Predict the 3D structure of the following.
Amino acid sequence: MKKIIIAIDGHSSCGKSTFAKEIAKKMCYTFIDTGAMYRAVTLWAIENNLIDNAQEIVANLDKVVINFKFNEQLERSEIYLNGKNVDSEIRLMHVSDNVSAVSAIAEVREKLVALQQQMGQDKGIVMDGRDIGTTVFPSAELKIFMTASVEVRAQRRFDELTQKGESVQMEHIKTNIQQRDFADENREQSPLRKADDAIVLDNSAMTVEEQMQWVDRLIIDKTE
Ligand code: DC
């Protein structure tokens, strides 16, 4: 079976990572959540009081070391920022509120895109984000563009955060999702857009199992 690159892009909070993780597990591929990488840079900027200062973020970018380590117990990779596991912390609302601004900085994107391309050089990878099929791996064999209604996405994110014990307001989450969609689609650097050869998946009314059934045939076609 041929090893391929699977690029999954789409709107915020529509289950890209859950879907990508399931595909990677099934195919014994590496899963990379590129949103987590932009979130880690954002967390670093917050912790160092640089969040409103793009110039200083750029000047100090070489101090940011990001890597993933596989957690055998959880059966998935976790993200590390300068040696510290930040996998949970990067999902908190104060990071979500600032990540669009940080991910719009050209130098941040250059650094992370280079890292992502290095991670996928041997193929056998499922990567999710906003610009994977357009910029990171324009020649990926399988490209999927995911979306879902804002209501469904906000409910999913609300459930995820409340399960973690974070006290959140549904309206705040909805606004954050809409603002991030707008910022992602309208930024100058690698805006979120569907690659011409990407296949759209609207999972508003689909379970993960149904999404896996949907993708099965596509994977067989591309790996044969
Ligand atoms: O996938 P996510 O919601 O965790 O991503 C967080 C933010 O990072 C998102 O609002 C946009 C940005 N991002 C990006 O610009 N490019 C990517 N490849 C992945 C994420």
In short: The pocket of 2'-deoxycytidine-5'-monophosphate is lined by residues 12, 34-35, 38-39, 99-100, 103, 129-131, 180, 184 (CB under 6 Å). The chain has a mean pLDDT of 96.
